[in-house]
Design brief:
seven-stranded mixed β-sheet, alpha/beta, 17 strands, about 30% strand, 8 helices
């Protein structure tokens, strides 16, 4: 399958302040070995056969470029697309990379929000996208665990209570496939563009977006609260297979 990865790693990480006054959010150390979040993602992609990567960078890009360089130390090929003032938002970063020719020759682009860690079977996800022939395919979880407790009320009385229950909805987990031809359709857009809010929402109206349902582990590391509560030993154990 002719795929290149586009890693979204240019945001300012406002939900992780004050840490992100000093770090690019994707370079925050995790696991007992304290490697950057972005290294876990790169090794995860390589494990599943994706070894050509464009990193969409902006805020504190130097930290990323100085660490990954051309990717050869990680047995992948890495190039970079820098944010500009004409195109803003993560959709703008994607279109900017398309215009710069970063996706030339590739049929499909794997977009990965780089403050997400996931242990999904990426190989199966790629196969699903190829077989179903959607313009875009979203990875979605089969449930969502609420971060708060939920009370059931009868008047003023609490009649039942569940601490952080799972509910039956399908949240997106920050991983999606999109055909390069689909990106081309939006390549003349200007201003602030959001991948999910503008590009994917438009494709949904055309009924050309698929959903790959997974029950695998995933976590959004993009807030101070989740980062502080991260189980580093669990991360190290779960993701160790990608480092061999």
């Amino acid at each position: 399958m002719n795929v290149k990865a586009a890693l979204l790693c240019g945001g300012t990480g406002s939900r992780l302040r004050p840490l992100t006054y000093y770090f690019q959010k994707t370079m925050l150390p995790i696991g007992t070995s304290q490697k950057p979040i972005l290294e876990y993602i790169v090794r995860y992609l390589k494990f599943h056969g994706i070894d050509e990567i464009t990193m969409l960078v902006g805020y504190k890009a130097e930290q990323i470029v100085n660490y990954f360089r051309d990717g050869s130390n990680f047995s992948v090929k890495v190039d970079y697309s820098y944010d500009n003032d004409e195109l803003k938002g993560n959709g703008g970063a994607l279109i900017n990379a398309y215009r710069a020719g970063k996706f030339d020759g590739y049929e499909d682009i794997l977009i990965y929000y780089s403050d997400i860690l996931a242990d999904m079977d990426l190989t199966d996800f790629l196969k699903f996208h190829k077989e179903k022939k959607f313009s875009a395919t979203l990875a979605v979880s089969d449930h969502y665990k609420l971060p708060v407790g939920v009370a059931e009320m009868n008047g003023d009385t609490v009649v039942s209570f569940k601490e952080k229950p799972s509910i039956n909805i399908n949240p997106t987990i920050g991983i999606l496939m999109i055909k390069t031809e689909a990106i081309k359709k939006f390549s003349q857009m200007k201003g602030e563009i959001d991948i999910m809010g503008d590009i994917i929402s438009s494709l949904v109206k055309e009924k050309s977006v698929g959903g790959y349902v997974t029950n695998s582990f995933w976590i959004d590391v993009g807030t101070t609260e989740t980062y502080e509560k991260l189980d580093h030993e669990l991360i190290e154990t779960m993701f160790s297979k990608y480092f061999h």
